[in-house]
Amino acid sequence: MKALFDKFRHRDDDDVSPPFGEPQARKKPARGLDIRALVMPLLVTSLATLLVAAALIYVQFARIAGGQAEALGQAQAERMADQLAGRLQGYTDVIAAAGRTPAVVAAMAVGDQAVLDEHAARLHELFPAVLRIRFLALGDDRLDETATPPLSYACLELARLAEAGQVPPVEAHLHGTAGQHMDLLRAVVGPQGVVGSLMVSLDVAGLQGWLRPLVPAAGGYVELRQGGEGKSLLLAAVGDANLRQAAAGYAAAVAGSGWSLQYWPPAPAATLDAAQQTVFLTIFGVALLVLLVAFALYSAAIKRIVHADLVAVAKQAVEMWSGHHQHNFEARLAESLEVLAALEQRLRLMQPKAVQPDAAKAEAMRRSAGLVVDELPGPLHGALQPHDKPAGDEGP
Fold first, then answer.
1. Is the peptide bond before 265 cis (omega within 30 degrees of 0)?
2. Each residue of 20-63: pLDDT tens digit?
3. φ, ψ for residue 7 (rounded to 5)?
Protein backbone atom coordinates (compact mmCIF):
# COMPACT_ATOMS: atom_id res chain seq x y z
CA MET A 1 0.00 0.00 0.00
CA LYS A 2 2.96 2.31 0.66
CA ALA A 3 4.16 1.86 -2.92
CA LEU A 4 0.66 2.69 -4.17
CA PHE A 5 0.51 6.01 -2.37
CA ASP A 6 4.15 6.80 -3.24
CA LYS A 7 3.13 6.60 -6.90
CA PHE A 8 0.61 9.42 -6.50
CA ARG A 9 2.91 11.42 -4.25
CA HIS A 10 5.69 11.34 -6.82
CA ARG A 11 3.25 12.48 -9.53
CA ASP A 12 2.15 15.46 -7.47
CA ASP A 13 5.73 16.33 -6.60
CA ASP A 14 6.67 16.42 -10.28
CA ASP A 15 3.96 19.01 -10.95
CA VAL A 16 5.18 21.39 -8.27
CA SER A 17 8.43 23.18 -8.87
CA PRO A 18 10.54 24.01 -5.82
CA PRO A 19 10.85 27.76 -5.22
CA PHE A 20 14.02 29.55 -6.31
CA GLY A 21 15.33 26.41 -7.98
CA GLU A 22 16.00 24.70 -4.64
CA PRO A 23 14.82 21.15 -3.90
CA GLN A 24 11.79 21.04 -1.65
CA ALA A 25 12.37 19.25 1.67
CA ARG A 26 9.92 16.44 2.28
CA LYS A 27 8.26 16.10 5.64
CA LYS A 28 8.71 12.77 7.36
CA PRO A 29 5.30 11.13 7.64
CA ALA A 30 3.96 10.87 11.17
CA ARG A 31 4.10 7.44 12.76
CA GLY A 32 0.51 7.55 14.04
CA LEU A 33 -1.17 5.09 16.32
CA ASP A 34 -0.21 1.45 16.30
CA ILE A 35 -2.56 -1.48 16.76
CA ARG A 36 -0.50 -2.74 19.69
CA ALA A 37 -0.70 0.68 21.31
CA LEU A 38 -4.49 0.60 20.99
CA VAL A 39 -4.65 -2.91 22.43
CA MET A 40 -2.24 -2.12 25.29
CA PRO A 41 -4.83 -0.41 27.57
CA LEU A 42 -7.05 -3.45 27.27
CA LEU A 43 -4.09 -5.69 28.09
CA VAL A 44 -3.15 -3.58 31.13
CA THR A 45 -6.77 -3.59 32.32
CA SER A 46 -6.97 -7.36 31.91
CA LEU A 47 -3.70 -7.87 33.78
CA ALA A 48 -4.85 -5.60 36.60
CA THR A 49 -8.16 -7.45 36.78
CA LEU A 50 -6.33 -10.77 36.85
CA LEU A 51 -4.02 -9.58 39.63
CA VAL A 52 -6.92 -8.27 41.73
CA ALA A 53 -8.88 -11.47 41.18
CA ALA A 54 -5.83 -13.55 42.11
CA ALA A 55 -5.33 -11.52 45.28
CA LEU A 56 -8.98 -11.88 46.29
CA ILE A 57 -8.92 -15.60 45.56
CA TYR A 58 -5.71 -15.97 47.57
CA VAL A 59 -7.23 -14.15 50.53
CA GLN A 60 -10.36 -16.29 50.27
CA PHE A 61 -8.31 -19.47 50.10
CA ALA A 62 -6.26 -18.25 53.06
CA ARG A 63 -9.46 -17.75 55.05
CA ILE A 64 -10.64 -21.19 54.07
CA ALA A 65 -7.26 -22.63 55.04
CA GLY A 66 -7.45 -20.76 58.34
CA GLY A 67 -10.93 -22.17 58.94
CA GLN A 68 -9.69 -25.63 58.07
CA ALA A 69 -6.77 -25.17 60.47
CA GLU A 70 -9.16 -24.20 63.24
CA ALA A 71 -11.39 -27.15 62.46
CA LEU A 72 -8.35 -29.41 62.44
CA GLY A 73 -7.11 -28.03 65.76
CA GLN A 74 -10.52 -28.52 67.36
CA ALA A 75 -10.77 -32.01 65.90
CA GLN A 76 -7.36 -32.92 67.29
CA ALA A 77 -8.33 -31.64 70.74
CA GLU A 78 -11.54 -33.65 70.65
CA ARG A 79 -9.69 -36.71 69.43
CA MET A 80 -7.23 -36.53 72.33
CA ALA A 81 -10.08 -35.96 74.79
CA ASP A 82 -11.95 -38.96 73.39
CA GLN A 83 -8.88 -41.16 73.66
CA LEU A 84 -8.35 -40.09 77.26
CA ALA A 85 -12.04 -40.63 78.00
CA GLY A 86 -11.79 -44.09 76.44
CA ARG A 87 -8.93 -44.98 78.76
CA LEU A 88 -10.89 -43.81 81.78
CA GLN A 89 -13.94 -45.71 80.52
CA GLY A 90 -11.87 -48.89 80.32
CA TYR A 91 -10.78 -48.50 83.95
CA THR A 92 -14.26 -47.70 85.25
CA ASP A 93 -15.72 -50.64 83.32
CA VAL A 94 -13.30 -52.97 85.12
CA ILE A 95 -14.26 -51.40 88.46
CA ALA A 96 -18.00 -51.69 87.69
CA ALA A 97 -17.56 -55.33 86.64
CA ALA A 98 -15.69 -56.07 89.88
CA GLY A 99 -18.47 -54.39 91.84
CA ARG A 100 -21.01 -56.75 90.31
CA THR A 101 -19.07 -59.90 91.18
CA PRO A 102 -21.25 -62.13 93.44
CA ALA A 103 -18.34 -62.81 95.80
CA VAL A 104 -17.71 -59.09 96.27
CA VAL A 105 -21.41 -58.37 96.73
CA ALA A 106 -21.70 -61.14 99.33
CA ALA A 107 -18.57 -60.00 101.15
CA MET A 108 -19.84 -56.41 101.22
CA ALA A 109 -23.19 -57.57 102.56
CA VAL A 110 -21.63 -59.44 105.54
CA GLY A 111 -18.55 -57.24 105.94
CA ASP A 112 -16.02 -59.98 105.10
CA GLN A 113 -12.85 -57.92 104.88
CA ALA A 114 -10.59 -60.86 103.99
CA VAL A 115 -12.51 -61.58 100.79
CA LEU A 116 -12.55 -57.89 99.94
CA ASP A 117 -8.77 -57.64 100.45
CA GLU A 118 -8.27 -60.61 98.16
CA HIS A 119 -10.26 -58.93 95.39
CA ALA A 120 -8.42 -55.67 96.01
CA ALA A 121 -5.09 -57.46 95.46
CA ARG A 122 -6.32 -58.73 92.11
CA LEU A 123 -7.35 -55.24 91.06
CA HIS A 124 -3.87 -53.94 91.92
CA GLU A 125 -2.52 -55.98 89.04
CA LEU A 126 -4.89 -54.31 86.55
CA PHE A 127 -4.28 -50.67 87.44
CA PRO A 128 -0.85 -49.08 87.03
CA ALA A 129 0.19 -46.40 89.50
CA VAL A 130 -2.61 -47.44 91.85
CA LEU A 131 -2.39 -45.88 95.31
CA ARG A 132 -5.25 -47.51 97.15
CA ILE A 133 -8.37 -49.61 96.62
CA ARG A 134 -11.25 -49.17 99.03
CA PHE A 135 -14.60 -50.90 99.51
CA LEU A 136 -16.99 -48.38 101.10
CA ALA A 137 -20.07 -49.70 102.81
CA LEU A 138 -23.48 -48.25 102.02
CA GLY A 139 -23.90 -44.95 103.87
CA ASP A 140 -20.40 -45.00 105.37
CA ASP A 141 -19.35 -41.35 105.89
CA ARG A 142 -16.22 -41.79 108.03
CA LEU A 143 -13.15 -39.81 106.98
CA ASP A 144 -9.67 -41.34 106.93
CA GLU A 145 -7.16 -38.50 106.81
CA THR A 146 -4.24 -40.60 108.05
CA ALA A 147 -4.36 -43.06 105.16
CA THR A 148 -2.45 -42.70 101.90
CA PRO A 149 -4.16 -41.23 100.11
CA PRO A 150 -6.59 -39.66 102.59
CA LEU A 151 -10.34 -40.30 102.38
CA SER A 152 -11.83 -36.81 102.19
CA TYR A 153 -15.31 -35.35 101.92
CA ALA A 154 -14.85 -35.05 98.15
CA CYS A 155 -14.25 -38.81 97.99
CA LEU A 156 -17.39 -39.52 100.06
CA GLU A 157 -19.45 -37.29 97.74
CA LEU A 158 -18.60 -39.61 94.87
CA ALA A 159 -19.82 -42.56 96.98
CA ARG A 160 -23.11 -40.80 97.66
CA LEU A 161 -23.62 -40.23 93.92
CA ALA A 162 -23.03 -43.92 93.22
CA GLU A 163 -25.45 -44.95 95.94
CA ALA A 164 -28.06 -42.64 94.40
CA GLY A 165 -27.80 -44.50 91.09
CA GLN A 166 -25.74 -41.87 89.30
CA VAL A 167 -22.42 -42.34 87.54
CA PRO A 168 -19.75 -40.49 89.52
CA PRO A 169 -17.20 -38.59 87.42
CA VAL A 170 -13.49 -39.22 87.65
CA GLU A 171 -11.97 -36.44 89.76
CA ALA A 172 -8.65 -35.38 91.22
CA HIS A 173 -8.67 -34.60 94.94
CA LEU A 174 -6.31 -32.75 97.27
CA HIS A 175 -4.44 -31.38 94.27
CA GLY A 176 -1.16 -29.65 95.11
CA THR A 177 -0.73 -31.49 98.39
CA ALA A 178 1.24 -34.56 99.35
CA GLY A 179 -1.98 -36.58 99.32
CA GLN A 180 -3.17 -35.57 95.84
CA HIS A 181 -4.79 -38.39 93.88
CA MET A 182 -7.59 -39.14 91.46
CA ASP A 183 -10.55 -41.34 92.31
CA LEU A 184 -12.47 -43.74 90.07
CA LEU A 185 -15.60 -45.02 91.83
CA ARG A 186 -18.48 -47.33 90.92
CA ALA A 187 -21.33 -48.80 92.94
CA VAL A 188 -21.35 -52.41 94.18
CA VAL A 189 -24.72 -53.68 93.08
CA GLY A 190 -26.33 -56.93 94.20
CA PRO A 191 -29.72 -58.53 93.62
CA GLN A 192 -31.21 -56.29 96.28
CA GLY A 193 -29.63 -53.12 94.86
CA VAL A 194 -26.62 -51.03 95.86
CA VAL A 195 -24.70 -52.44 98.85
CA GLY A 196 -21.66 -50.16 98.74
CA SER A 197 -18.98 -48.60 96.54
CA LEU A 198 -15.65 -49.64 95.08
CA MET A 199 -13.07 -46.78 94.89
CA VAL A 200 -9.76 -46.96 93.09
CA SER A 201 -7.29 -44.12 93.78
CA LEU A 202 -4.54 -43.47 91.23
CA ASP A 203 -1.51 -41.19 91.21
CA VAL A 204 -2.15 -37.86 89.45
CA ALA A 205 1.40 -37.92 88.14
CA GLY A 206 0.39 -40.83 85.93
CA LEU A 207 -1.69 -38.44 83.81
CA GLN A 208 1.52 -37.05 82.35
CA GLY A 209 2.24 -40.43 80.81
CA TRP A 210 -1.35 -40.70 79.56
CA LEU A 211 -1.15 -37.40 77.67
CA ARG A 212 2.24 -37.83 76.03
CA PRO A 213 1.23 -40.44 73.41
CA LEU A 214 -1.90 -38.43 72.56
CA VAL A 215 0.00 -35.42 71.18
CA PRO A 216 -0.14 -35.30 67.34
CA ALA A 217 2.99 -36.12 65.38
CA ALA A 218 3.24 -32.45 64.34
CA GLY A 219 3.66 -31.50 67.97
CA GLY A 220 1.93 -28.88 70.05
CA TYR A 221 1.11 -28.20 73.68
CA VAL A 222 -1.53 -30.04 75.71
CA GLU A 223 -2.95 -29.26 79.12
CA LEU A 224 -5.37 -31.32 81.21
CA ARG A 225 -7.39 -29.23 83.64
CA GLN A 226 -10.13 -29.80 86.17
CA GLY A 227 -12.85 -27.27 86.90
CA GLY A 228 -14.19 -24.23 85.08
CA GLU A 229 -12.45 -21.17 83.75
CA GLY A 230 -10.68 -19.06 86.35
CA LYS A 231 -10.74 -21.85 88.95
CA SER A 232 -9.35 -24.74 86.97
CA LEU A 233 -6.54 -26.89 88.26
CA LEU A 234 -3.67 -27.91 85.98
CA LEU A 235 -3.40 -31.67 86.35
CA ALA A 236 -0.86 -32.41 83.61
CA ALA A 237 0.83 -30.73 80.62
CA VAL A 238 3.07 -31.93 77.79
CA GLY A 239 4.69 -30.21 74.81
CA ASP A 240 6.06 -26.74 74.13
CA ALA A 241 4.55 -24.35 76.68
CA ASN A 242 5.57 -21.33 74.56
CA LEU A 243 2.78 -22.16 72.12
CA ARG A 244 0.25 -21.29 74.80
CA GLN A 245 0.98 -17.60 74.25
CA ALA A 246 0.65 -17.78 70.47
CA ALA A 247 -3.06 -18.55 70.18
CA ALA A 248 -6.21 -19.21 72.16
CA GLY A 249 -5.99 -22.97 71.78
CA TYR A 250 -8.77 -25.52 71.42
CA ALA A 251 -10.67 -27.08 74.32
CA ALA A 252 -12.59 -30.34 74.56
CA ALA A 253 -14.31 -31.95 77.53
CA VAL A 254 -13.16 -35.39 78.69
CA ALA A 255 -16.29 -37.53 78.95
CA GLY A 256 -16.84 -39.34 82.24
CA SER A 257 -14.78 -36.84 84.21
CA GLY A 258 -14.69 -33.25 85.42
CA TRP A 259 -11.71 -32.56 83.19
CA SER A 260 -11.13 -30.61 80.01
CA LEU A 261 -8.27 -30.92 77.55
CA GLN A 262 -6.78 -27.85 75.87
CA TYR A 263 -4.57 -28.07 72.82
CA TRP A 264 -2.33 -25.51 71.11
CA PRO A 265 -1.10 -26.60 67.65
CA PRO A 266 2.54 -25.95 66.72
CA ALA A 267 1.79 -23.44 63.96
CA PRO A 268 -1.79 -22.25 63.51
CA ALA A 269 -2.15 -21.93 59.75
CA ALA A 270 -3.63 -18.56 58.74
CA THR A 271 -2.44 -18.81 55.14
CA LEU A 272 -1.91 -21.49 52.53
CA ASP A 273 0.85 -23.99 53.10
CA ALA A 274 3.79 -24.40 50.73
CA ALA A 275 2.08 -27.02 48.56
CA GLN A 276 -1.11 -24.98 48.23
CA GLN A 277 0.87 -21.83 47.42
CA THR A 278 2.78 -23.70 44.73
CA VAL A 279 -0.45 -24.91 43.14
CA PHE A 280 -1.99 -21.43 43.31
CA LEU A 281 1.05 -19.70 41.81
CA THR A 282 1.28 -22.31 39.06
CA ILE A 283 -2.36 -21.80 38.08
CA PHE A 284 -1.96 -18.02 38.18
CA GLY A 285 1.26 -18.16 36.13
CA VAL A 286 -0.35 -20.34 33.46
CA ALA A 287 -3.36 -17.99 33.30
CA LEU A 288 -1.04 -14.99 32.96
CA LEU A 289 0.96 -16.66 30.19
CA VAL A 290 -2.19 -17.63 28.29
CA LEU A 291 -3.47 -14.05 28.58
CA LEU A 292 -0.24 -12.55 27.22
CA VAL A 293 -0.04 -15.04 24.33
CA ALA A 294 -3.71 -14.49 23.49
CA PHE A 295 -3.26 -10.72 23.39
CA ALA A 296 -0.14 -11.02 21.24
CA LEU A 297 -1.90 -13.28 18.73
CA TYR A 298 -5.03 -11.12 18.83
CA SER A 299 -3.15 -7.87 18.15
CA ALA A 300 -1.19 -9.51 15.33
CA ALA A 301 -4.41 -10.79 13.75
CA ILE A 302 -6.06 -7.38 14.03
CA LYS A 303 -3.02 -5.72 12.49
CA ARG A 304 -3.07 -8.09 9.51
CA ILE A 305 -6.81 -7.63 8.96
CA VAL A 306 -6.69 -3.83 9.22
CA HIS A 307 -3.63 -3.61 6.96
CA ALA A 308 -5.29 -5.81 4.33
CA ASP A 309 -8.50 -3.78 4.50
CA LEU A 310 -6.65 -0.48 4.16
CA VAL A 311 -4.87 -1.73 1.06
CA ALA A 312 -8.17 -3.01 -0.41
CA VAL A 313 -9.98 0.26 0.35
CA ALA A 314 -7.16 2.33 -1.16
CA LYS A 315 -7.04 0.28 -4.36
CA GLN A 316 -10.82 0.30 -4.69
CA ALA A 317 -10.93 4.06 -4.11
CA VAL A 318 -8.31 4.66 -6.80
CA GLU A 319 -10.29 2.65 -9.33
CA MET A 320 -13.53 4.41 -8.38
CA TRP A 321 -11.91 7.82 -8.75
CA SER A 322 -10.36 6.99 -12.11
CA GLY A 323 -13.68 5.75 -13.40
CA HIS A 324 -12.30 2.33 -14.32
CA HIS A 325 -13.93 0.05 -11.82
CA GLN A 326 -12.48 -3.17 -13.16
CA HIS A 327 -11.58 -5.01 -9.94
CA ASN A 328 -13.40 -5.79 -6.73
CA PHE A 329 -10.88 -5.86 -3.89
CA GLU A 330 -12.06 -7.82 -0.87
CA ALA A 331 -12.58 -5.88 2.37
CA ARG A 332 -13.39 -7.87 5.51
CA LEU A 333 -14.22 -5.19 8.06
CA ALA A 334 -17.71 -3.72 8.15
CA GLU A 335 -16.21 -0.26 8.63
CA SER A 336 -14.21 -0.66 5.41
CA LEU A 337 -17.34 -1.62 3.50
CA GLU A 338 -19.10 1.46 4.88
CA VAL A 339 -16.24 3.69 3.71
CA LEU A 340 -16.35 2.22 0.20
CA ALA A 341 -20.14 2.63 0.02
CA ALA A 342 -19.91 6.27 1.14
CA LEU A 343 -17.11 6.94 -1.34
CA GLU A 344 -19.04 5.43 -4.21
CA GLN A 345 -22.10 7.48 -3.35
CA ARG A 346 -19.99 10.65 -3.16
CA LEU A 347 -18.43 10.04 -6.56
CA ARG A 348 -21.84 9.52 -8.12
CA LEU A 349 -22.96 12.91 -6.82
CA MET A 350 -19.86 14.62 -8.21
CA GLN A 351 -20.24 13.29 -11.77
CA PRO A 352 -21.75 15.93 -14.23
CA LYS A 353 -25.16 15.21 -15.64
CA ALA A 354 -25.36 14.43 -19.39
CA VAL A 355 -27.02 17.19 -21.48
CA GLN A 356 -29.33 16.12 -24.30
CA PRO A 357 -29.53 18.92 -26.98
CA ASP A 358 -32.91 19.90 -28.40
CA ALA A 359 -32.60 20.05 -32.24
CA ALA A 360 -35.89 21.88 -32.76
CA LYS A 361 -35.00 24.57 -30.28
CA ALA A 362 -31.59 25.01 -31.84
CA GLU A 363 -33.13 25.41 -35.34
CA ALA A 364 -35.54 28.00 -34.02
CA MET A 365 -32.69 29.93 -32.49
CA ARG A 366 -30.78 29.78 -35.78
CA ARG A 367 -33.68 31.26 -37.75
CA SER A 368 -34.23 34.02 -35.27
CA ALA A 369 -33.49 37.43 -36.67
CA GLY A 370 -30.12 38.87 -35.81
CA LEU A 371 -28.85 35.62 -34.18
CA VAL A 372 -25.88 33.81 -35.66
CA VAL A 373 -25.08 30.32 -34.44
CA ASP A 374 -21.50 29.36 -35.26
CA GLU A 375 -21.71 25.88 -33.80
CA LEU A 376 -24.70 23.81 -33.04
CA PRO A 377 -24.89 20.91 -30.64
CA GLY A 378 -23.97 17.42 -31.70
CA PRO A 379 -27.05 16.40 -33.71
CA LEU A 380 -26.85 19.58 -35.86
CA HIS A 381 -23.23 19.24 -36.84
CA GLY A 382 -22.94 19.41 -40.62
CA ALA A 383 -26.10 21.54 -41.00
CA LEU A 384 -25.95 24.71 -43.07
CA GLN A 385 -24.90 27.84 -41.28
CA PRO A 386 -26.52 31.19 -42.02
CA HIS A 387 -23.55 32.39 -44.06
CA ASP A 388 -23.07 29.16 -46.02
CA LYS A 389 -24.37 28.42 -49.49
CA PRO A 390 -25.65 25.11 -50.70
CA ALA A 391 -23.20 22.94 -52.53
CA GLY A 392 -23.28 23.38 -56.27
CA ASP A 393 -25.03 26.76 -55.99
CA GLU A 394 -22.29 29.08 -57.02
CA GLY A 395 -23.46 32.60 -57.33
CA PRO A 396 -21.74 35.50 -58.85
1. no
2. 445 555 566 555 666 777 777 888 888 888 888 888 887 777 77
3. -60, -45
DSSP state of 386: T
Confidence of residue 186 (pLDDT cuts 50, 70, 90): very high
Asked if 197 contacts 185 with a C-beta cutoff of 8 angstroms, the reply is: yes
Q: How far apart are CA 312 and CA 339, in angstroms?
A: 11
The CA radius of gyration of the chain, in Å to the nearest whole number, is 55
In whole angstroms, give the CA distance from residue 191 to residue 362.
Answer: 151
Q: How far apart are CA 174 and CA 85, in angstroms?
A: 22
What is the full DSSP assignment across 13-69? HHHSPPGGGPPPPPPPPP----HHHHHHHHHHHHHHHHHHHHHHHHHHHHHHHHHHH
> Among 3, 2, 25, 31, which Cα is nearest to 13's?
25
Q: Cα–Cα distance between 174 and 341 in angstroms, integer?
A: 104
For residue 198, pLDDT over 90 is answered with yes
273-321 pLDDT, tens per residue? 677 778 878 888 888 888 888 888 888 888 888 888 888 888 877 877 7
> Rounded CA gap, 244 and 264, in Å?
6
Amino acid residing at 8 = F
* Cβ–Cβ under 8 Å, residues 191 and 109: no
- pTM: predicted TM-score of the whole model, two decimal places: 0.59
What are the distances in angstroms from CA 71 to CA 65, 84, 145, 207, 218? 10, 20, 46, 26, 16
Cα–Cα distance measured from residue 240 to residue 237, given in angstroms and rounded to the nearest whole number: 9
- Our measurement of the distance from residue 274's CA atom to the centroid of its chain's CA atoms, rounded to an integer in Å, reads 16
CA 386 to chain centre: 102
Q: Which residues pair with 261 in a beta bridge?
A: 224, 252
Quote the CA–CA distance of 1 and 306 in Å, as a whole number: 12
